[in-house]
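Archive entry. Fields below.
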Amino acid sequence: MTARAREMEADLVRFISGAGWEEARARGAEAAFSDLAIRTFRIQCDAIPEYGAYARHVGRWPGRSGDWREIPPVPSSAFKDHGLSAAPAPPAVTFETSGTTITRPGRVQLQSTRLYETSLLKSFARHILPDGARLKIIIFGPTRAESPRSSLWFMADRVAARFCDAPSWIVEHGEPRWERADAELTRSHDERVPVLLLGTTLLLHAYVERCDRKGHRFALPPGSRAMDTGGAKGARVELRRDDMAASVQRVLGIPPTHFVNEYGMAEMGSQFYEDTLLAGHERRPARSGFVIPPWVRTRVLDPETMLDLPEGRPGLLVHYDLANLDVPLAIQTEDVGAVAGNRLTLEGRLPEAERRGCSLPFEQFLERERGPDVPR
Amino acid sequence: MTQGLFDAFYLPPDVERQAETSVQRFGPPHDAIELRLATVTPASIDTWVEAIRSARAERLARRPAAEIHRVLERVAQRFLDPQSPVRRNAIAWLARSGRFSTPMIERALTDTFGPLSAGGVSRWVASELGSAAALDRPTPDRKGIPRQAFGPEWMLQIYAGNVPGLPVWPFYSALAMKSALFAKASSQEPVLPPLLARTIAEEDQDLGACIAVAWWKGGTIELDRAAVRRAPAVLAFGGENSTTSIARETRPEAKVVIHGSKVSVAYVSRASLTRAGLGSLAARSAFDVALYDQQGCLSPHAFYVERGGDVGPAAFASALGGALESLRDGLPRREPEASQAARVQLYRAQAHFEEATGSRGTQVLASSEGTDWTLVYEDGARFEPTPSYRTVRVHAVDGVEEVEAALAPAARFIEAIGLEAKGRERTALAAALAAMGVPRIAPLGALQSPSLVGTHGGVHRLLPFLRWTTVETGPRSAGHRRDRPKGKARRSR
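PREDICTED_STRUCTURE:
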């Protein structure tokens, strides 16, 4: 890492660590955000040659007084073939992206995970552990050793090490060991020790479905909570959030106030959380959508014109994340959603199976080529 | 002309009286239509199937096929006649259901019903069966052996909604072979199947008594199962998930044809790249891309263009871009949903990224505004479907071997190849492409107009569902195996 990059990293860590969550404070920090983003962009243009070439190609080479909105977002699909990283070989970590619907999985290589961890721990603590609870964690997924290329299981590993006790993992050698979950949950109930469940929506759903079939019920002690991520991507049936929350409550005894959804992607160091649990802690009603961290800006563009849409109107999402230093901070996604204040609402995708009919959806084509999805 | 409520189902009158219905909103919130749907349960599926089966036995099975075919031809004429209320009503509702622009819908109705009118149904049946009379009585085939064809008692058909006319030929195929029809409409296109059923019933009550059209959410396992398990014949279109579960549930003896997801591509030989012909070639290519907004399995996603012609692949690409631009008005697109447009934008951004950083000489051409069309030009062949909505790749290639290699791993996903070449060169190229197992090779500009008497997915439209009775006249029957002298069979080498 160059001295310039090291200094940048320190500045970014300082900004993220000190950032206030209140909307007004975040707005007040606009100039600081823009300054850091532009400096990061300049470093990235030099350190990641492909990104620099792309920025020049699309005519976005901001001068000194640039606005962060001028930073060209890199398409999330570009992680596929291109070494879109400033990390020298071998990098400290390599995350595999799940691939967009138009490309195969890509790679996100980081030289340092310091920024990533700063961002993820701060967001996680606020939205999942606002009461400062120290819980036993049950990870509905594999260990990091078993799945070293997944940013999600990296995150679970960091969270477990930093905030939790006695982690246990439900997936081993690629197979869910449901009996292990049964045993852990029974123990939690018997010993009145609250637990934190963390995993993909699909795995949690599969587990509660299995419990329903077998008639298993766990009245987990108060304070127990669950975080799920990934939505119903790849599900054969449509999962409705309400139904999922109801099953989690019915089977595990975790109320909807303690069931928090997270939205993230391997290409971004930062994640977005619902504020259901935080709202309960602050004794106020929860607001809908995901909270945009103060070190992230999300633009919503008209997908036809690529111009910014007014607040509240749904469009294509572009994220600017100050937790991204080794990879471009501006990411163009294919996700559709709306932003109001510091809230992001994602628009659900229609299930593809029926809509495309006899025309080959490329997700399916790629799925056959690459095998099942790696979560983040 | 169209009011807000559409009856998105059809049941024979006696059954309809007892059916429960509910109303659902359909389409974008600001311009939704309301669909009245029959409430579907496993028990109601049983009742409806029973009703169309017995109607078929009483009113269809012994009717002369030619008479049925004439009814179907008259119905096709009503969907073709610009003055006919049937056609105008269909266009209005299809337009309001929001998938395609009005010119596109008009085109779809004309292309779909055209081949079925004026003797078209009987010609189609005769082309596959030898003669339509073979559906009525044992009729001598080409070798003089009397044979009679029997369609299944009833057929389950499950449609996809990607192309507006898609249900029509399958719908006709069932009735043309005297089978009752239970049709599941697509949630994307709930309009045409019930309209077609109602028009047939108006024209001929007996045929109308043998049809049921319903809709339920794809993947509703108990309903899929109730329909599929009883069906003696199934014709289904759809994605892999839905078709796999359908295939699993069918009766072992059922006659099943499933059309999974596919796309098409095109090949342009160097000899056909002339200055004089470029305009027409580009226009025909653009038409194949633009029709049905590239939603069909016959829509080309990639053009493989040989180097070394009078005009090069890059010139072809820019001519194609120009032709796509002029189709923005000529054959307007329906604006895609935000998520679809977002994919096109990501695809474009990715192509620009490759343009800036790649080594394949990538160049991006795109509509002057919006996501109307996108063209990505690059050196060398490869295959990857695009996000559609008029997004296409043009690859400069040295020859067909290069394309064969690129397509080989994906050959089973390719429905058709549009081939631009003439004479002996065309014969040779077609042979090379056919060897890959691609079901259809067609001229550019006609890629989306398959022949009714041809095949879909490489299988005929009627033959796979028929059962035959052959009336043999004894050992001397002409052309029969038993005519040969007894003893050791002669080996021919």
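CURATOR_NOTE: The longest helix of chain B spans residues 338-357.
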